Amino acid sequence: MTPSLLPCGDSALTVQIGESIDAEANARIIALAEAVEEAARSGDLAGVLDIVPTYRSLLVRYDPERIRAKDLGPRLLEIAARPLAAAAGRLWRIPCLYGGEVGQDLQEMARMKGLSPEELIALHSGTDYRVFMIGFAPGFAYLGGQPEILHTPRLPKPRQNIPRGAVGIGGQQGNINSVAGPSGWRFLGWTPVRSFDPARAEPFLFRAGDHIRFHPVGPEEARALEARSAAGEMIVTPEEIRA
User: Fold this and answer.
1) Which of 45, 122, 131, 213 could be stapled to 39 by a disulfide with Cβ–Cβ 3.0 to 4.6 Å?
2) What is the pLDDT of residues 134-186, one digit of tens each?
């Protein structure tokens, strides 16, 4: 996968790797983001204002009064061509209360797939999800890696108020709602884990390159975890892995 460069207006460039959602391309983008950030921090790459990693591309915003696109572009491609080490990732084990009021699509999705609800839960909770990117809403993690049988189109008409913590599927992606709001995703359950909390030192819980595994919990345990989370306690701790 040879990196390519795309202009984005007069103050941003995008480095693109690959043409599809791919874990290898995503790992290279995350490593590139760290390398560009370090070069900017050290002063080796002047004029860089912000970087935004996505599934297979890295947006680099720059100050055109400090560096020109014709100078920045080759530098970005040179960094992208290096044998960059994979960025460090973390594994999060996330409790999930399947079904119920929030997981309102569990029964229908199981019927659509020809599975029992228990089989669907086993498939969903038995998958290692990769956080490909953060976007759309604060702390909203786009999750990839789910088996094809779980791929499900979004609803034709979005619901107007889905709560924070709702665990869903949209197409081939998974998610955990970071804030309450409208959504066309189909939801299987709910987690008391807060993926976005502006009161925390690090408001976003997840970052690109992390991995997530869900494990089922019952209503009583979910309520107890929610009470602890609402009191400001960190109810999950990540394990260090490699991206």
Assistant:
1) 45
2) 999 999 999 999 999 999 999 999 999 999 999 999 999 999 999 999 999 99
Instruction: For residue 23, give the nearest of 111, 87, 71 by alpha carbon.
Output: 87
167 and 216 share one domain: yes
Domain boundary among 47, 81, 115: 81
Angstrom CA distances, 52 to 105, 153, 191, 197, 208, stand at: 33, 27, 27, 20, 11
pLDDT single digits (tens) 12-56: 999 999 888 888 899 999 999 999 999 999 989 999 999 999 999
Question: What is the domain extent for residue 159?
Answer: 90-240
- In the block, tokens 């199981």 appear at 110
Does 187 lie in the same domain as 70? no
User: Do 151 and 43 reside in the same domain of the chain?
Assistant: no
